[in-house]
Amino acid sequence: MMLKFLFASALSLASAASVAKAADIEFWYGNTGLGEEAIQNACSAFNAAQSRDRVTCVGQGSYEVAMQKAIAAYRAKKNPVLMQFFDAGTLDLMLSGAVEPVSEALPQVKWDDYLPGARSYYQTAKGALLSQPYNGSTLILYGNRELLARAGISALPATYEELVADARKLKAAGIACPFATDGLSWRVLEQFSARHGEPIATRHNGYDGLDATYTFNTGLAATHLQNLKSWRDEGLLRLEQDTKTGKFDAAFNAGECAMVENSTGGYGAAYKALGDKVMIGLAPMYQGKTRHNTLIGGASIWIMKGHGPAEIEAAKAFLDFLRRDDQQIAFAGKTGYLLMTGSALTALKISGKAATPEFAVADLGVSSLAEPGNDDSRGIRLGFFVQFRDIFLKETQKAFNGEKPMQQALDDSARQGNELLRRFEKTYRGAAMQ
């Protein structure tokens, strides 16, 4: 009996030692600038807060590059255990078999504490959360108080009709760049369509099946792109290549442009450059249209398969650390990204920091995500969407440059996008939408 007891105790201790085994893991991310600084700060804080595990955070230069490298590394069985993927790659990852849903890996976590606007993009139809929302953002309108005042404007426009009227006043006042954008799909198509409650593709943007087809080349989105072209021709709108800096957000931060639609994640850099000159408001609507929620942007953290128990435990510990209220608040204060959980928002209000400039976008961003939604404002579930974004930009730039009519550019984008969707559908034939 004593031998049996000692043997059982030894097994128990061995099991406990196995669970507590230290591990060195890597977390790959795509942010640069203030976002990268904040990520590195979080990694250092985690390593200093405990002695069992160590995480090395490795920047990859951009979301697109990070995703390509992670997929290649997975095929070579050299992938990191934790990977930051951006919103556009959600469906590809969901069906890849390379990732484990975080709600299955961490069933004890109260995932419903995450804001609905953050969960819906990364959640399956059955309610499983695929990844942990991290550097969440959404689209808002920025204004330069000083430049707007030169044209007698004291408040940001709520509608595009008001924005155009203000842009004409700014132009008349000698402001060469009244409004600026980079023309990326995320800003001028995805966020625009979501908050206007309109789809960019059938099957509720692909949520209901892989047989979706693009429809953005008709309706309000098509009208908006044509308007952007005419506003540029009139000198009211500048694209990146029209600005002195070559970047629309840098042009705003340098005081060249009076207004931009940009991510809440850009607030940190804008405030650092312009201070109290920065004004923020909800992204504009067309008159007579009902406002719906904007989409969550930025990225989330995924657990990649192919690692042992010790590495997985270290990954869970790091995710737990990043989820802490104080860590979310520190990250948001550094970058302008949004707090992702209700508990972190409550903690921010209790702290007394909610009204400080560094957290100016917190309530605005959350309120934009929390606007009433419909089946077409949940998010995007379209295959090879990263490649589609490139096609959309290439074709619409041709229209902006006068190489083809905007309607033709949109039709060509939809046609090429549908070819991608059919190829994706063929690749994952028989796969069930989660």
Automatic annotation (TrEMBL):
Protein name: sn-glycerol-3-phosphate-binding periplasmic protein UgpB
Function: Part of the ABC transporter complex UgpBAEC involved in sn-glycerol-3-phosphate (G3P) import. Binds G3P.
Domain of life: Bacteria
Xref: InterPro entries: Bact_solute-bd_prot1, SBP
Pfam families to which the protein is assigned, alphabetical: SBP_bac_8
Cell compartments where the protein resides: Periplasm
Quaternary structure and partners: The complex is composed of two ATP-binding proteins (UgpC), two transmembrane proteins (UgpA and UgpE) and a solute-binding protein (UgpB).
Keywords of the record: Periplasm, Signal, Transport
Assigned protein family: Belongs to the bacterial solute-binding protein 1 family.
Signal peptide from the UniProt entry: 1-22
Organism: Rhizobium paknamense
